[in-house]
Amino acid sequence: MTSDLLAPLDLAFWNIESDRHPMHLGALGVFGAHSPTAGAHAADLLAARAAAVPGLRLRIRDVWQPLAFGGAARETDPDFDPLNHVRLHAPTADFHAVAGRLMERPLERGRPPWEAHVLPGEDGMSFAVLFKFHHALADGLRALKLAAGVLDPVDLPERPPRALEPPRGLLTDVRRLPGMVPGLVRGALSDAGRALDIGASLARSTLGMRPSSALTSAPSGTRRTAGVVVDIDDVHRVRKSAGGTVNDVLIAVVAGALRRWLEERGESTKGVAPRALIPVSRRRPRTAHPQGNRLSGYLIRLPVDQSDPLGRLDTVRTAMVRNKDAGPNRGAGAVALLADHVPALGHRLGGPLVGQAARLWFDILVTSVPLPGLGLRLGGQELREVYPLAPLAPGQALAVAISTYRGRVHYGLVADAEAVPDLDRFAYAVSAEVETLLSACEL
User: Fold this and answer.
1) pLDDT in tens, 356-391
2) Rounded to an integer, what distance in angstroms lies between the CA atom of residue 117 and that of residue 119?
3) Which residues form the O-acyltransferase WSD1 C-terminal domain (predicted)?
4) How many angstroms separate the CA atoms of 307 and 403, rounded?
5) Which of 320, 305, 302, 323 is nearest to 253 (CA)?
6) 3-state secondary structure of 383
7) Cα 241 from Cα 440, distance rounded (Å)
């Protein structure tokens, strides 16, 4: 049985998890249905196909060997049974209501950490599939590949073959250690300097901040989800008129929606500029460890206190340009890179404390999850909508994930159900903010 040592950030995700704060990603896909039995047929297909996807057979086990003491590794589960992971539920009229309750539940850690929940629609004209993947098993890109493995085959353009380096083993060849020592020392000094720089940037990012009470909460362990669909052509119209990138516009929409939502709650937005973490992938196409999380991030203050919608967009654009000039390896947003400087046992012992410290680092997560432009199907049924769902850090009440699929932008919203009982109002505010930006560009 072969095994693959978890990368430092994967190990961090594995160890900061708690019952009230599971660290799994989600995606809620809504499919059309030609008959009321389409959902049941989809569940059968998912279970049958899962056995043939190697990545779905991987469980995570503890490692107590030298040089990896206290770590964890992925390995093939010899007792893998797809029926433990694919579940067919009763028909429902509200996919998001069911998805919220399912997102509350941590994945079983003794099995491959993923699940697929099939939710037939009460009207018999649609069904949904909620995929859950632990962040230690896969990041957004890897999760997409795993999910694609159980959907209907898609004809993709062929790519030239490339040589792959062998996977990283659990132990370093002892014979190579003497020659590696000088380089390891230089690397350690460089890493220490980079870690200090990130730490200083993180400290500076907390100065002068007034957190919004709506975005922070005592953890209840409950979850609520919602989704918003936006026409990508509307986003491009704003971008062409006001400048910036598509991503700048999508982030500015979140800032404006927060302002509208807070004001409707009767809360003041004066001086409110919550810190938003914008994850950035550091994955390289030829990496020898493709399934490991390779993330950094940008940290920006969302201009919720600004009344002018185009002014908010300009503030977001300026902040993103500044972050891109500095690069994803510098600044407070790159704090995820500190995981690389912590030994495996440190992750195991300090994981719970790191999770609790997330509220000191950022107030809201705004992440983008890429999707293919090709139409996806399951059992011949077309995927019509897909909402990415991000994990919720301790002490934080709301996370936003964004995907573009076939000409439409999908905002997937996850909230603490007790702290944000009005998540549908925030979803409405997202749609309204797009219209506000369009109107402002026409003036």
Assistant:
1) 555 667 889 999 988 887 789 999 999 999 999 999
2) 6
3) 292-434
4) 27
5) 302
6) strand
7) 10
